[in-house]
Structure formats: structure tokens, C-alpha cells
Amino acid sequence: MQLKTLRYQIPSGWLEPLPLELDGASTLVLAFGASEFADDPAPFADLARAFPQALLLGCSTCGEIAGTQVHDASVSVAVCRFERSTLRHASTEVRDAQDSWRAGARLAAQLQGPGLRAVFVLSDGLHVNGTSLVAGLAQNLPEGVDISGGLAGDGSRFQRTWVLVGAAPRPRHIAAVAFYGAQLRVGHGYDGGWSDFGPERRITRAEGNVLYELDGKPALDLYKAYLGERAAGLPGTALLFPLSLRREGGSGDAVVRTILGVDEQKRSLTFAGDMPQGGIARLMRTHNDRLIDSAGLAVSRATQGLEASEARLVVSVSCVGRRLVLGERTEEEVETVVEGAPRGAGHVGFYSYGEIAPSLAGGASDLHNQTMTVTVFGEAAAHGAAAG
């Protein structure tokens, strides 16, 4: 496995030469870029020309992760050539949140094949129910296939997101790459670092990812009451106070949900994933040190059981809400991931509107919010040879 990470920065352009020698049918080019590149996609055209045989996958972000740093107005790229694994690309349009499960099923149909081990998916961040998307994928893929990835971002603006289809940034699209082969090694880990506060409230009216009522009262009114003066900055300020969600009578850890939009007329809140009626919701909060420590837990879980020589590409997907809380300390979170990764591994990623990772107990993948997720890709060394 051969890997090179690089970066494009406005206005400088490419900061290092593109590694043309890594092009091939089993080469993955990951490109995470600022949302403004929808207006000038020149760097993606450069990548498509430089790597005509490779699979190009990318999306818009709330900040681009490159090594130990976080950038804006840039593109963070990993060019990874697999030597003993095969790859396949798939994409589909998603019309609206109600189409999310079917969109996942359409992707799964394109990715079926012998030896399928893992899927990395990038989705539009504003018009998708991430819970349904992951369910549509998981329920139509073979059992045991791990799914990770994230929802594209647009800073705290919530105006436009895109996913690369070919070299073109496209809204309302989902794209994925699937990995096949017995030599593939993939590790996953995540952690949040948030804690509940305030009373539990029952979801008394909801449809999919739209929450209308908590305890019989308009959800938006209750949320604004908690935010006080911060309510004027919705939906952006909601990133500082997500909701924890657990199903009534359900087992396992609660999931975290982030608000993507508000409807003043209907007094409702739109979330990145399902808000099941009858579920129990609570507000959450955190502090900087807990977020930074949680990033260390995520990478530790992702690399557990992997030989150092097998872990070559580390991809972090973290929530924009974490970046807003951390502020000037954001890079400490990213540095913590690099410190916990095997020496010599390349690290890229992005800040997102939602994170996708398998459960810690080894169960089905799910949508997370306000979470640091880490996916590690590598290959077992060929018998009698050193790792590539």
C-alpha cells in the first residue's frame, strides 16, 4: 500500500506536486474541500487529470483536516494505492430526506460483490436523513460489512453542501467507495465526550428527522427557552447544545443528534438523523478537555488489533459542533488523533454535519453527531515481503 497526502490552498494552489505515479485502478483519491469550491472546482479537475484510473471521492466540509492541522479555504487530499485489495465506486442522487433509505439501497445494489469488506460513504449534509441512509445501506449489504464516513458540511452556515460526482461538486448526491479482498485491514473507533444535563423530555410528535413536540409542547419553543440569547443564532448555535436520544425501553448507549434547521412557522427542528416518536431526549454540553480526550479514545479504538505496518491511512470525521466549542484549541483534537495513530500513517479528514461509524460493540453502523470518528485503512503484508 502506497500513500501520499497533499493540500491545495487558496490562493497558492497545490503546495506539493501531485504523485502521478500512484495512479491505478486500485487507487483511492480522497478530497475534502471548503464549500466555496462548488463555484471553482479547478482542484478536482486537476486530480481527475492526474489520476484518470483512480476512484475520486470527496465532499464539502466545515474545516479540512491535514495531518495535525485544520484549514479553511483548502482541499485536503490523500492518494492511496492499494496493492492487494480492489475498489469500486458508486453514487446516487437523493431527492429529499424521505428518499434517504432508498438512496442507501441504491448504493448497496451498485456495490455488491464477492469479498466485500467495508464501505466509506460521503453524503449531502442538508437534504438527507442520515439514520435512514445508513439503514438502507446496511440492510442491503452482506452482514458484517462495516460502513463509515460522514455528511458533508458548510461551516455554521447550513446553506449548501456538495459531494464529488466525478470531478464535479454536486448537491443532493451521495457517493461511496467499497473495498474488497482478504488482505484489507480496517479499524473503526469513535467517542463523543458530551454529557447530559436538564430534564428528560419525551418526543411526543415527530416524523422521520423532524421533531415537532417534546412533552406535548412545540420543540422549537422549548429549545429557544434553553438557549436564551443564543437562540438568535439558530441553527448554528444549536451545535453548542445537541440532544442525546435513546429509544424508550431501548438498550445500549444514547446517540447524539445535531440540529440542521428550524421552521419558525411549524415550530419544529430538523435533525441529521431520526427522532423516533416516544424516544427520550435531553440537552447535552461539554468542555474542551473532554472533547480532546475523546479524540484519543476514538483513535485508540480504531487501531486496536491492527499491526502498525497494516495501518497506513487514517481518516477522521469530526462534527462542526466540536470545532465551534474548541475554537482555537481545535487542532489539539486533531493532534491527539495523530499522536495515537501508528507512526508513518497519513492523516486526512473533515469537520462534518454527521459522522458514520459501526457501533463499539461490533454491531450495525449508525449515524452519530458531535462525535469524533476514526477509520483506519491498511493491508496485510504479502507473505515474505515488507509492507508497502
Low-confidence stretches: 384-388
What portion of the residues fall into strands of 2 or more residues?
35-45%
Radius of gyration: 20 Å
Please, what is the average pLDDT? 92
How many separate domains? 2
Give the overall shape, derived from the CA principal axes: globular
The tally of beta strands, per DSSP, is 27
Estimate the helix proportion, in percent: 10-25%
Measured between the Cα atoms of the first and last residue, the distance is 5 Å
Describe this protein's structure.
- The protein is an alpha+beta fold and 388 residues long.
- It has helices spanning 42-50, 100-111, 130-138, 219-227, 288-303, 320-326, 330-340, and strands at 2-9, 13-14, 27-34, 55-61, 64-66, 69-71, 74-81, 86-93, 116-123, 146-151, 163-165, 168-170, 173-180, 184-191, 195-207, 210-214, 217-218, 243-246, 255-257, 259-263, 268-271, 280-285, 313-319, 346-352, 354-358, 365-368, 372-379.
- The strands form five sheets. Strands 15, 16, 17, 18, 19, 20, 21 and 22 form an eight-stranded antiparallel beta sheet that branches.
- Helix 2 (100-111) packs parallel to helix 3 and helix 5 (288-303) runs parallel beside helix 7 (330-340).
- The termini are close together.
